[in-house]
Write a structure and sequence with these properties.
heterotrimer, A mainly alpha, B mainly alpha, C mainly alpha, A: mainly alpha, Cytochrome C Oxidase, Chain A, two-stranded antiparallel sheet, globular, B: mainly alpha, Four Helix Bundle (Hemerythrin (Met), subunit A), 7 helices, about 0% strand, binds protoporphyrin IX containing FE, binds copper (II) ion
């Protein structure tokens, strides 16, 4: 008897390869699980960053009035008597920016979508280094914990803006030290991830998956990974230098003769605040492409799939993306026109900035032209993808005046800048990320999200995003500065545009309400959503849909290694039974 | 399904995964130290005066350390070559030497730091001292990291030679690439900090 | 692994020893040269030339870049470009400064 029981359990172990709960869901090395871990964590952080902003918007719309409901819950230093303190306002601003960028959008766009989709799209069983992949996630999580914990540090969280410019940041409260430690962790996580992505894409492509057959999303992730790999280390170095300034008393960023609150600072001096700005923006300009390229990749996939046509100018998309990635390393000082740079260097950076706008326009135009003559299916992901195009267009075009020093000088550090980059990252990237969630949700769960709730979510989101961000241009052009504790109430020149603050704040809170259908949809569909019949819900040509079941097999994705016979978007292929040609379908008989 | 090309090279790229991986990592390290060197140059050019390294730091100790690191580099590459020639015993000896040279480097370095502190020279004293401590400190961390990996490959990790010799040889190669890079960084740090 | 491969490696061993000797000699040279009273510019140039030479020996032979794959050359070329950008553009921006020259 014991013999047979043994045999059975043995066979069992082979059949299911039972894993413990921890190995399966927590310390998993399966790229799909890690992708979902990234997705959930980063969505929570996006929500948290958004909550910080909703709080701030109260102070901007109704300065010096006690915050209703929440005000009494905040500590005495954050909001004495329920009225937001200026220090807390600054913390909220700095942490909103940091969390949205480094803990929200990047991990969602790269960690979640990249991790989940890239190996599937190239026909690989997993990422090249599964354990490294797991550690990327946990280092990211640790960075997030440090950032969150910093709210409880004496003096509150970092409050020198997401840019952390010294000398202010060098002498700021403990929260800034934690910010730096958190950033070092987050950058390390991105570096580990980027190595993994590049190796995966170069080495693990399935047989027949040549470079020009890669889905555009994979190209976008590849270029993004290079940006992470080569642009992030300088900020890591700068972070270490700033830590030395704060902890070991060095003066890397402290100039000689600095006076703080009427007293000369007792440091050796001789440092350069501008050095930080250079190192920061060396990272942070490529960073904005890290925020946008994966979004473009998602949108391209969805557009091809829902117009049922090949993408317009696939090759020009690919080459534009590579060129854009390259150029993004030599435009950074367009953020520094006001630091007294001479005309030759300014001209250099203006010129490169104008050059880099060309590939961006090529990409956007190609995506627009892909719509031409297609029989568009207005699915929920497609609506979000379509919404992305004009929103990103507004964001991009309003950026041009910021790239020319003559026009940047009056616009720099005004709400115009805030409006510009939010059009890129919020109605732009965030819409694309939602599109991606609706598109790949059935892949991850085997169930579709509800269409009606999805459409409700879309219209609410795009409407209120514009209500929030459009007035920022108006305020900015009137000269209202960013990072103002009272939203400009004490400035005469802001008076004519001040009432927009109330409009924007109501827009922000309404945007929160517009997310309710998404929450309901997300959780309900996980359990009750319409089941995906044959893995390929969207009748897609790319491997993640055409070669793998939904959800794909744990540890390995595919039953057998897929072979690839053609490019990614052959949606009009007469002669194939369904009218489209999956990448892994052999020539028709 | 197993992950392909963990041991053998992919035919069209000619590399196994970890080889590409370590070079990518080293590329990012180049940018990390690039930013630090850039900071050094910028601060030095802007400074009204700059001490000659030799007037504050000990050139003999640093020369000794340079010798130790380049020795460790040659023993490292020899340990890999020994595995290629299937001489496991020689591998152990060479890698052991690499570890000892690395340890020697750290000991000399700690004497150097100790001497600075006993003369009350701290990072906060001047931009020069700040650069000196930060750059060498980060480099020491890299040495430590490399030694941990090497110690693992010398000790418990070496069991793999019996089960998967080719993969083990690859691991040693990858660890070696990292170790040589750490040596390479020092080759630049030495003149920049001590001689100029 | 075939015999010819083993043979290859043993040939390499000689070059490793030679490289080691060259590195040791160059270390002595760079220390010795530094004792001359050069101008700062000349001293920097000499020291960096020697260091670059030593560095390329390590990279070419110990890291066997002399016989590496194309992808790695491309990667390193790309990195080298951005490295140069990172070193020189901030410096250029500081030197081409309005108002207060040389004050960062
Ligand atoms: C969707 C809802 C969002 C709203 C209502 C919002 C609103 C705002 C506002 C009003 C500011 C200016 C604060 C000030 O100047 O004092 C701001 C700053 C900022 N936001 Fe957002 N934002 C949103 C989403 C995002 C996203 C998705 C990102 C990034 C991916 C982001 C990144 C930033 C950054 C980097 C700053 C600058 C912080 C600083 O001044 O240091 N925001 N946001
Ligand atoms: Cu920029």
């Amino acid at each position: 008897m014991s013999h047979s029981a043994d045999a059975v359990s043995h066979a069992d172990a082979h059949a299911h390869h039972e894993e413990s709960f921890w190995r399966k869901y927590v310390f998993s090395i399966d790229h799909k699980v890690i992708g979902i871990q990234y997705a959930i964590t980063s969505l929570l952080f996006l929500f948290f960053g958004f909550c910080l902003m909703m709080l701030m918007r109260w102070q901007l719309a109704f300065p010096y009035e006690p915050i209703p409901l929440i005000g009494s819950l905040l500590s005495e230093s954050m909001a004495p008597g329920g009225i937001m303190s200026p220090e807390f306002y600054n913390s909220l601003g700095a942490m909103h920016g940091t969390i949205m960028v480094f803990l929200g959008v990047v991990p969602l766009a790269v960690g979640a979508f990249g991790n989940f989709v890239v190996p599937l799209q190239i026909g690989a069983p997993d990422m090249a280094f599964p354990k490294l992949n797991m550690s990327s996630y946990w280092v990211y999580a640790a960075g997030g914990v440090v950032m969150l914990a910093s709210f409880f540090a004496p003096g509150g969280a970092a409050n020198s803006g997401w840019t952390s410019y010294p000398p202010l940041s060098d002498i700021a409260t403990t929260g800034q030290t934690m910010w730096l430690l958190g950033m070092v962790l987050l950058i390390t996580s991105s570096l580990l991830g980027s190595v993994n992505f590049i190796v995966t894409i170069i080495q693990l492509r399935a047989p027949g998956m040549t470079w020009m057959r890669l889905p555009f999303f994979v190209w976008a992730q590849l270029v993004t990974a290079f940006l992470l790999l080569l642009a992030f280390p300088p900020l890591e170095a700068a972070g270490v230098l700033q830590l030395m300034d704060r902890l070991a008393g060095t003066s890397f960023f402290l100039p000689t003769g600095l006076v703080v609150s009427g007293e000369a600072l007792s440091v050796s001096g001789g440092g350069s605040p501008l050095l930080w700005q250079h190192l920061f923006w060396f990272l942070a300009h490529p960073e904005v492409y890290v925020l946008i390229l994966p979004a473009m990749g998602i949108v391209a996939e969805i557009i091809a799939n829902n117009t049922r046509r090949p993408l317009f100018g696939y090759r020009s998309l690919v080459f534009s993306t590579i060129f854009l990635g390259f150029m993004s390393f030599i435009v950074w000082a367009h953020h520094m026109f006001l630091t007294g740079m001479g005309t030759s260097i300014s001209t250099f950076f203006q010129t490169t900035t104008m050059i880099i706008s060309v590939p961006s326009v090529v990409i956007l135009s190609a995506l627009f032209l892909s719509l031409w003559g297609g029989s568009i299916r207005f699915t929920t992901p497609m609506l979000f993808a379509l919404g992305f195009l004009p929103m990103f267009g507004i964001g991009g075009l309003t950026g041009l005046p910021l790239g020319l020093s003559a026009t940047d000088i009056p616009l720099h550090d005004t709400y115009y800048v805030i409006g510009h980059f939010h059009y890129v990252v919020a109605p732009g990237t965030i819409l694309a990320l939602f599109a991606g969630i609706y598109y790949w949700f059935p892949k991850a769960t085997g169930r579709k999200m509800n269409d009606r709730l999805g459409k409700l979510h879309f219209w609410g989101t795009i409407t209120f995003m514009n209500v929030i961000f459009m007035p920022m241009f108006i305020q900015g052009l009137a000269g209202v500065s960013r990072r103002l504790y009272d939203g400009g109430a004490q400035y005469a020149h802001a008076a004519p545009v001040l009432e927009w603050n109330v409009v924007m704040s109501i827009g922000a809170w309404a945007l929160a309400i517009a997310q309710i259908p998404f929450f309901i949809n997300f959780f309900r569909s996980m359990f009750k959503g319409e089941k995906v019949k044959d893995g390929n819900t969207w009748e897609a040509t790319t491997l993640e849909w055409s070669a793998a079941p939904s959800p794909p097999i744990a540890h390995g994705n595919f039953e057998t290694v897929p072979s690839v016979y053609r490019g990614p978007y052959e949606y009009s292929a007469p002669g194939f039974p369904q009218g489209y040609a999956p990448q892994n379908a052999p020539e028709k008989a | 399904m197993d992950i392909p090309y963990t041991v053998d090279a992919r035919p069209d790229t000619g590399m196994y995964n970890a080889k590409l991986g370590i070079w990518l990592f080293l590329a990012s390290e180049v940018m990390l130290f690039g930013a630090l060197f850039s900071s050094y140059i910028l601060l030095r050019v802007a400074a009204p005066e700059w001490p000659r390294g030799a007037s504050i730091l000990s050139v003999p100790l640093a020369t000794l350390n340079t010798m130790l690191l380049i020795s460790s580099s040659v023993t490292m590459v020899m340990s890999w070559a020994s595995l290629k020639m299937k001489k496991f015993g020689a591998y152990r000896v060479y890698l052991g030497l690499t570890l000892l040279f690395g340890l020697g480097f750290l000991i000399v370095k700690s004497f150097e730091y100790g001497a600075k502190f006993s003369h009350h020279l701290y990072p906060g004293d001047s931009t020069f001292m700040a650069i000196y401590f930060t750059l060498t400190g980060l480099h020491v961390l890299h040495v430590l990291g490399g030694m941990i990996v090497n110690a693992y490959l010398w000790g418990p990790g070496a069991k793999m030679w019996k089960t998967a010799p080719e993969q083990f040889t690859n691991r040693v190669e990858v660890a070696g690439l990292y170790w040589h890079f750490v040596d390479l960084v020092w080759i630049f740090l030495f003149p920049v900090l001590y001689l100029l | 692994m075939s015999d010819s491969h083993t043979h290859d490696v043993s040939k390499h061993v000689r070059s490793y020893v030679l490289v080691f000797a060259a590195l040791a000699v160059l270390t002595i040279v760079t220390v010795w040269v530094a004792s001359f009273e050069f101008t700062v510019g000349a001293a920097v140039a000499v020291a960096l030339i020697i260091a670059t030479f030593k560095g390329s020996l390590v990279a070419s032979f110990f890291m066997h870049l002399v016989s590496e794959k194309k992808a790695i050359y491309w990667l390193l070329a790309l990195t080298a470009i951005f490295f140069v950008v990172l070193i020189f553009l901030p410096l250029g921006a500081m030197l081409d400064h309005q108002g207060t020259p040389n004050v960062p």
